[in-house]
């Protein structure tokens, strides 16, 4: 069995990923609240990944950093603190996690890292300046670090469109908004957390051992198709 560190596995995509990985792996979850899961293969550390020192772990074959933000405001209403906050959650938190656990990942088997971006880095969207700026930083981190860590550790990112998670609850707060957002996508669907988790599971697996430095757009066609 392999051992994976999931940061932010108590809800949303992270929770779906923890559930998926526990079928045949040991999972170490680090989050402020414990996932509502009872499984002998799950180890949980209650920790704020941004504010606290990350727990000492002696072995891991992969790291998935799930925390993110959806701070949608007109540019005129954003202040420097908004940009700093989004950058800290999305980029600096990931950097901190990677730097902390890189020594043990180097000792793992086919070790891999997965981070999360957004379709807003590729598709100009109103009110997304802060989140798109920070997630663009994630994409730069992935490409640069993939070159630096090759051939021993792979790193990739997933850039999902709107996903039905607590983080996106304001965007999906009523049926009309869900319908409007769904209709904007050529495939006429938004994502489930399980879909995104499945892609993350694939990217950390040996099936993806030739993939590194890539950004995978799970976009329901919104970036790549015009129909």
Structural account:
The protein is of the alpha/beta class and 227 residues long. It has one domain: Rossmann fold, CATH 3.40.50. 35% of the residues lie in helices and 16% in strands. It has 5 helices and 7 strands; from the N terminus they run E-H-E-E-E-H-E-H-E-H-H-E. It has a 7-stranded parallel β-sheet with strand order 3-2-1-4-5-6-7, sandwiched between helices. Strand 5, helix 3 and strand 6 form a beta-alpha-beta unit.
Quick structural summary:
With 227 residues, the chain is an alpha/beta fold.
Specify the structural class.
alpha/beta
CATH superfamily: NAD(P)-binding Rossmann-like Domain
Biggest beta sheet summary: 7 strands, parallel
Radius of gyration: 17 Å
**What is the residue-mean pLDDT, rounded to a whole number?**
94
What are the key terms here?
227 residues, alpha/beta, Rossmann fold, 7-stranded parallel sheet, 16% strand
Secondary-structure blueprint:
Blueprint: E1 3-7, H1 12-21, E2 26-31, E3 42-46, E4 62-65, H2 80-105, E5 112-116, H3 129-149, E6 154-160, H4 175-184, H5 193-204, E7 215-218
Parallel strand pairs: 1-2, 1-4, 2-3, 4-5, 5-6, 6-7
């Amino acid at each position: 069995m392999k051992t994976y560190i999931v940061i932010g596995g108590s809800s949303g995509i992270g929770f779906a990923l923890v559930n998926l990985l526990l079928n045949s792996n040991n999972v170490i979850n680090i989050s402020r609240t414990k996932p509502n899961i009872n499984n002998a293969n799950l180890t949980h550390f209650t920790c704020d990944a941004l504010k606290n020192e990350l727990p000492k772990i002696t072995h891991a074959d992969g790291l998935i950093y799930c925390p993110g933000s959806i701070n949608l405001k007109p540019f005129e209403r954003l202040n420097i603190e908004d940009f700093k906050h989004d950058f800290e959650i999305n980029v600096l938190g990931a950097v901190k996690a990677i730097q902390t656990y890189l020594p043990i990942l180097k000792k793992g088997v086919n070790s891999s890292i997965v981070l999360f971006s957004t379709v807003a880095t590729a598709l100009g969207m109103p009110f997304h300046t802060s989140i798109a700026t920070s997630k663009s930083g994630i994409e730069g981190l992935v490409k640069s670090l993939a070159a630096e860590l090759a051939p021993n550790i792979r790193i990739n990112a997933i850039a999902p469109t709107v996903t039905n998670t607590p983080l996106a609850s304001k965007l999906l707060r009523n049926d009309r908004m869900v319908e409007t957002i769904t209709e904007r996508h050529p495939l006429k669907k938004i994502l489930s957390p399980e879909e995104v988790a499945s892609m993350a599971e694939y990217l950390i697996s040996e099936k993806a051992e030739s993939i590194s430095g890539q950004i995978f757009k799970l976009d329901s066609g919104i970036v790549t198709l015009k129909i």
